Amino acid sequence: MFQFLKGVVAGSGTGLKDLPYNIGDPYPSAWGSWNHFRGTSKDDGSPVSIFTLSGNNAQDGHLAAGRNGVKRLRTVRHPNILSFLHSTEVETHEGSTSKVTIYIVTEPVMPLSDKIKELGLKATQRDEYFALGLHQITKAVSFLNNDCKLVHGNVCLASVVVTPTLDWKLHAFDVLSEFDGSNGSASGPMLPYEWLVGTQYKPMEMVKSDWVAIRKSPPWAIDSWGLGCLIYELFSGSKLGKTEELRNTVGIPKSLLPDYQRLLSSMPSRRLNTSKLLENGEYFQNKLVDTIHFMDILNLKDSVEKDTFFRKLPNIAEQLPREIVLKKLLPLLASSLEFGSAAAPALTALLKMGSWLSTEDFSVKVLPTIVKLFASNDRAIRVSLLQHVDQFGESMSGQIVDEQVYPHVATGFADTSAFLRELTLKSMLVLAPKLSQRTLSGSLLKYLSKLQVDEEPAIRTNTTILLGNIATYLNEGTRKRVLINAFTVRALRDTFPPARGAGIVALCATSTTYDDTEIATRILPNIVVLTIDQDSDVRSKAFQAVEQFLQILKQNYEKTNAGEAGVTGGASAIPETAGLIGWAMSSLTLKGKPLEQAPLPSSSSAPSLASAASNAVTTATETPSVKASHHTRSNSDFTDQPAPPSPTSTDGWGDVENGISEGLDSDKDGWDLEPLDEPKPSPALANIQAAQKRPVSQSSRPGATSSRPKIGTTKAAAKTEDDDLWGSIAAPLPATTSRPLNLKKSVQSDDEDPWAAIAAPPPTTRAKPLSSGRGRGAKPAAPKLGAQRINRTSSGM
């Protein structure tokens, strides 16, 4: 038997040199003759606990009991029993004497008595934590007694240890043995190592060594007595000195006192079964126990129960002991979210608990779970992440955001839900500063260019606001290429007044980005038009913007005259624009129904890049007045355009549409116009261009010339370029001016038809009407009055 036990102990290790763990500092207390040390793994440095037991003789009874404890600990598994990791037995020789040491490696734990002193809980919080711990130990003892028919033999304060998550675990299995009550012929001790148990912890039948009475008693009789000793030591705050002290019930809670007295009954057969102790609803039902119990059986709950529980959890967590919430409840919550058993409202509770951690602990305990959640397919989880991104966004590194978070968030830009598109857009205010320049220019700006023509006016407005806020993080070349086009060509021409106002404010906030030429030729002409806008707020902002940009030009002019050469309209650095403007609109789905707005031109209806380039070349030869006509557009110009198609993705964050996914590897964004080779015009187009260049005979009426200072070709080019929201609108100043045309007074529809100057003359003949035959579209002839002659053929008779 000894050789078998020795083989079991030595089965997982051959000696101390092969022990894959480092032994650290000891704890001040441990059960029996064991020593308890802190330890770490040599492989990954993870913490462990190492228990050692030494003896000078291989036949020492303590070593034999220790080997029994190792065997039992390896074979018995339960959530509330100490987890076994490794064991070995080492024999060392010092001269003529030998020393045998048993090593047991377990999960990291510390003695319960030390943990209670460390926590320092008082009053109600202490009682709630004790109820949680007693509930866990009672389940372990009930498992041994009722399910395994084993007797622990020494349940007490010293046999309980606590994990880093504040769970109580039962250990000290040296005395543990099978209950052989059915063996009537047995007469020896049922517990061979019962001599290791202190007399104060033994029930009267063990003190008398009445094994016949013990075998006739129920399996839980001895351990029920031990549970009573544990309850006394917990609430008295001291170790049990003698059996008579158990009569002192001053510190025992009133709801637990009846069960405590039944556990310590003098008659073994009348002692309370440990499983019955768990049914004490009055004592074990408190907020802490109920919360932990709900989390333990979370997979068995339905969605309604989960949703209700997690919505109440933030308020409940504030009433629980802070140390227990952070070390016990927080890991449970993070694990349930990571593996998909928790509902979306659990994220709110997780972030609230995480706010009580230090920055370092938050990055270790909470942030990894949040990063994994961005890959979740649960739309509710994604919405919750975007709504709370400001609470954890600053804690994420740029590399994590750029590589692990943004690819999942970006799919929301093309989601079919306007609410999710808006949340994705707003989240970029926190995430954009952590993105690389390649991601900003090659991906984010492409998505924003699509959102500026979104069907929802709130999204278009907030896109402009976001661009103004993140302008600081764009490189200089991208700012030059994108901002003016985004703010003037799109934002200032939006049919939604707040969108136009946002474009004006964004231009003012990024005013140091632009030089004098850009201000004078591209910004001011577009803003001045809005001084007569229908919306009073837009007009007010337009006047303020005009004054601001004129002041910039005036200051630069004065500096130039003063001899400060090299000073331009804008500095190289942009002021901090994080507080540019708040979001213009609230959540779209909270409004009950989508906002009504005039449809914007879709990207499919916009002219091609080649035609835009051609129009830009044509307008370069016109008069300066063309610029003004180019920007003077009424809101009615947009109403004739079809609304852009909405994305069609239906799962998760949504699929990337409109060619975004194919162009992510490009370094170009959606607002600039690259120079293209002008294609050779078709013969019909060549004739029109030639007609544009030919002078038109002036009208005999001089008044027509004064009232029409522009030619039709100029308006046609401006109209075409105006429809191209992707192209750059900056055109060089014309070198020459074309001669004004004197049109005939009879041509009264020039304002509506810019091609009237070169239109073909109206036809001189009238088209013949269709004959009223027997076709499907022919109307029946009206009946004639009076007698009519009917021609019948002979065949009809």
From TrEMBL:
Residues 695-708 have a biased composition (Polar residues). Residues 2-284 form the Protein kinase domain. This is SCY1-like protein 2 B. Gene3D superfamilies: Leucine-rich Repeat Variant (1.25.10.10), Phosphorylase Kinase, domain 1 (3.30.200.20), Transferase(Phosphotransferase) domain 1 (1.10.510.10). PANTHER family: N-TERMINAL KINASE-LIKE PROTEIN, SCY1-RELATED S/T PROTEIN KINASE-LIKE. Residues 596-797 are annotated as: Disordered. It comes from the Eukaryota. Coiled coil: none annotated. HEAT repeats lie at residues 523-561. It comes from Cardamine amara subsp. amara. Residues 598-621, 755-769 have a biased composition (Low complexity).
